[in-house]
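Before the break, one more example. Copy the sequence into your notebook; we will annotate it together after we see the structure.
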Amino acid sequence: MFTFILLLAELFEVNMQRSETLLGVLGKLHTYYAKSIFLFFLIQPGFYFVLGIVIFTGVFNLSIVFLLAIKIFDIFYKIELIKKVFIEREVPGEIVQMLEWKIPPLFFLVGAGLYPLLLFYALI
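Here is what the structure looks like once it is written out:
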């Protein structure tokens, strides 16, 4: 049941972030970040769900720690990219090229496929 709920949370995140390029993804996230940092964090329900599982079930093994670490790194890396691209406007040339790469549609489903499996493994 927990894995299915996490899958739904991840699909919600995919829907909120989907774009053709990384710059498009960051642009969408920047709109939430510009309105409120709290709104930006609210559109990350997978992180809060995993954190809630840790708190309410007491499960704290290597798999769940790895899952939390990935989610935390993902959130704060996006914040740093948003700051560099949209606020400070200081982006190295190599990163500008990366921001313009086309993202395959299935790429967004990697988290939705990986995170629920990690959670399932952590809970068994």
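The radius of gyration is 15 Å. Residues 23 and 96 are 9 Å apart (CA to CA). Try to locate both features in your own notes.
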